[in-house]
Specification:
Order of helices and strands: EHEHHEHEHHHEHHEHHHEHH
Number of helices: 14
Distance between the termini: 56 Å
Strand order of the largest sheet: 2-3-1-4-5
Number of strands: 7
Number of domains: 1
Radius of gyration: 20 Å
Shape: globular
Structural class: alpha/beta
Largest sheet: 5 strands, parallel
CATH topology: Rossmann fold
CATH superfamily: P-loop containing nucleotide triphosphate hydrolases
CATH architecture: 3-Layer(aba) Sandwich
Length: about 325
C-alpha cells in the first residue's frame, strides 16, 4: 500500500446498476467541490484488466488539478463484482460507501431492456431470468450483460461491504428520483458520504439512460457486440487516435441511435416470471430489510404479486 493511495478517494458509490447512478454522476459533477473521473465507470476495482494497469493509471482518470477537492467515483459494477470490496478497502482504506437500490424486478427488467436494445439479447425476460437462475444454482455467474437476477440480489453483495467499511449509506432509487421529491433524500445521501450538503438543488428532471429502443439494430450490434466491435475499433484507431475521443464518439453514436419509448410512469406489467427466481428475490428482500433496515415492503409486495401470478399460469 502506497501512502498516497490512502486519502486519494473520499467516497465511492458502488451501485446498483440501472438504479440512477448515471444521473447521480451528472448531479455530482455540478458540484464545484467534487471531482469524479473524467470517464464514468473506470471499472478499476472490478475488471481484472483495468486493475492490472496499476494505481498510476487510476489516478490518471482524474483531472490533474483534482488535489484539494473531494474526490469520489461512481461505478455500479463494484456492488456485485468479485473482489471489488476487498480491492477498494485494501487500496484506499475505510472510506464511506454509497449504494442506491431499486425494486429488484424493475432493476432486472431495465437491465434486460438495455441488453436487448444493444442487440445482445434475443430471449424473453422470463427465459433470461431462468437461465441466470440456473447459473446461480450451480454457483456460477452469467456474463456482465446477462446477470439480471444476480445483480438484483442485494443483501449478499452488501455483506461484502458492511464487513469492510464503517459507513455504508443506502438509499432507495424511488426516494431520490421520485417525481415529487423535495431533494431531501439526495441531500442526506450526499452528506452521509462527504460530510457536506450539495450546493445545487436536486433536479428531478435530470434522468439519464431513460427507457429507449435502437433506431437501427445493426448499429447497436456493431457498437456492443465484442467481435464486431474489434473490426470497428481497428478502423476507429486509424481515424481517431485518442482513446478518450473514441469513447466519446461511441457514446454519441449510441445516444444518436436511440429513440425514447413512451411510458406512463407506472410500473410495467410483465408476463409470468420463474417462480424460483421470484422466491429468491423475496428471500433476499427479507434479509435486506432485517440486516440493513431498508424499507422493502413495496418491493416485496411487487415480488409476491408476481409470484402468485406465475403460480396461476
Amino acid at each position: 500500500m502506497e501512502q498516497n493511495q490512502r486519502g486519494f478517494l473520499s467516497f465511492v458509490i458502488v451501485g446498483a446498476q440501472k438504479a440512477g447512478t448515471t444521473s447521480l454522476h451528472e448531479l455530482l459533477q455540478r458540484e464545484e467541490w467534487i471531482r469524479l473521473p473524467r470517464r464514468k465507470e473506470t471499472h478499476f476495482f472490478s475488471a481484472l484488466d483495468r486493475w492490472g494497469r496499476g494505481w498510476p493509471w487510476y489516478v490518471s482518470t482524474f483531472d490533474a488539478d483534482s488535489s484539494g477537492y473531494t474526490r469520489g467515483e461512481i461505478d455500479p459494477d463494484y456492488l456485485t463484482a468479485r473482489d471489488s470490496a476487498e480491492r477498494i478497502s485494501s487500496t484506499v482504506g475505510d472510506i464511506p460507501v454509497g449504494v442506491v437500490l431499486r425494486d429488484p424486478i424493475a432493476r432486472a427488467h431495465s437491465q434486460y431492456q438495455m441488453t436487448a436494445r444493444r442487440g445482445l439479447e434475443s430471449r424473453s425476460f422470463a427465459e433470461a431470468l431462468e437461465a441466470d437462475l440456473g447459473n446461480i444454482t450451480l454457483g456460477q455467474r452469467s456474463d456482465d450483460h446477462h446477470d439480471y437476477l444476480w445483480r438484483s440480489l442485494y443483501a449478499r453483495s452488501l455483506d461484502e461491504y458492511s464487513s469492510r467499511f464503517s459507513t455504508v449509506s443506502i438509499v432507495r432509487f424511488e426516494d431520490i428520483f421520485a417525481d415529487q421529491s423535495s431533494g431531501a433524500a439526495y441531500v442526506r445521501f450526499v452528506e452521509s458520504l462527504t460530510g457536506r450538503a450539495p450546493i445545487h438543488p436536486m433536479d428531478v428532471s435530470l434522468r439519464s439512460n431513460p427507457a429507449s429502443a435502437p433506431k437501427s439494430a445493426r448499429v447497436a450490434s456493431i457498437l456492443w457486440n465484442r467481435e464486431k466491435l474489434k473490426s470497428a475499433r481497428r478502423i476507429a484507431r486509424l481515424v481517431v487516435p485518442s482513446k478518450e475521443a473514441r469513447y466519446s464518439l461511441a457514446r454519441r453514436l449510441d445516444s444518436a441511435n436511440l429513440t425514447p419509448t413512451t411510458t406512463s410512469g407506472t410500473r410495467t406489467e410483465l408476463p409470468p416470471l420463474p417462480g424460483a427466481a421470484l422466491s429468491l428475490i423475496i428471500d433476499d428482500l427479507e434479509e435486506l430489510g432485517d440486516r440493513y433496515r431498508v424499507d422493502t415492503r413495496e418491493w416485496r409486495d411487487h415480488a409476491i404479486r408476481a409470484l402468485r401470478s406465475s403460480q396461476r399460469n
